[in-house]
């Protein structure tokens, strides 16, 4: 019984980030329910010795580490977070390893070891009366909390009373959902090529260069061209041929969900596309196709994004660009392979996509010294909002320079540059940091703009005029796939997507 009480206390302590946010009137009854519920479950599990020894310690450690990230970044654990951890690189993960996390992890590991010892050597008889009393007390309360979960009073206490949110049950549910999805992913076949979609190509009089830039973690309201008071886009704001659509709605708040949907014929209603990217259609119509990424290619465990690319003429990933470490790699380093690709295929139509690192945390590691404009910009475990904001704005400034450099490479060509980000980022709103919360509006509001060259305007007046008519419209990433194809002169005669140009019948 003492061990069950200890476990109940430890798991309840992991909910402190939510407990401290409870109004005083709700605090005592909610915490009492949490402790009793945890005690009831732990008491039952502890009397199944083998189950307890092999499950409680690892689940406690996982819950403890998860609670740290939730306390600092307000990131809830779910199956997508586990996929993200599975697919991340050591360099990316290393940027989140702080002194506080190491200390917290060491304490969690020590407690896990103590719990393992206590569980192996615990003794005590099962007391049915205790179980019966707790069952009688908890059953009606649990039933009412579930039945009236939309009641405003119940909603206040749900963060520490609903098994969907509290430890260790949220971790167990997450692992179960992850396992099911992982097995489903393993059994899926290859994606169907987008080249199979019915399409019509309108040839150009000069070689056409379509360059798509997929940003990372960039939110629309931090771009000067969208009204942000800081000078975060001093170069883009001077471009007369830039059509800015402001903030649009992203497919998701995770890269692994959003990017595959952006580049394939997915929609907000059906974001799980089974086809490959638009590059398949471009290749079908004779374009030289290239994917250039600031991220790494996984050989044995491709990410959803690399799986969605499909068949392209050339794919270039960060880990094939030389001996530059993850932390020392900047998006500007993609300009060299981009320029080489443009020169090598100068006499051909080209469709090139650049997948950037953009404004992914750690923000201060996303730009070199020359972009340290807003100071102080330290990004550390203290997560001081002003410093986080400064570092983030500097990363947008670096993106501005990067995009301006791309435009300069194709300014005198028949070219279009399309930019949008996969998702936004929380910068302290209601205590949230990072991304992954689809309900956080700032994580779904992303920039979207298109630049065209003077030559492109002369050859595609109707297309440019049609683009301008959509400025001020409420848009989402649903337009990304069909508009990119339309800008390249590819029309989709049999589609329900929100195309820019339709086939005249």
- By DSSP, the count of extended strands is 11
| CATH class wording of the largest domain | Alpha Beta
**Secondary structure tally, helices:** 18
Q: What global shape is seen?
A: elongated
CATH homology superfamily name of the largest domain: Alkaline Phosphatase, subunit A
| SSE pattern, N- to C-terminal | HHHHHHHHHHEEEHHEHEHEHEEEEHHHE
Give your account of this protein's structure:
The structure is a single chain. With 505 residues, this protein is α/β, with parallel strands linked by helices. The protein folds into 2 domains: 2-185, no CATH class; 207-491, Alkaline Phosphatase, subunit A. It contains 18 helices and 11 strands. The strands form 3 sheets. The protein has a 7-stranded mixed sheet, with helices on both faces.
Concise account of the structure shown:
By secondary structure, the protein is of the alpha/beta class.
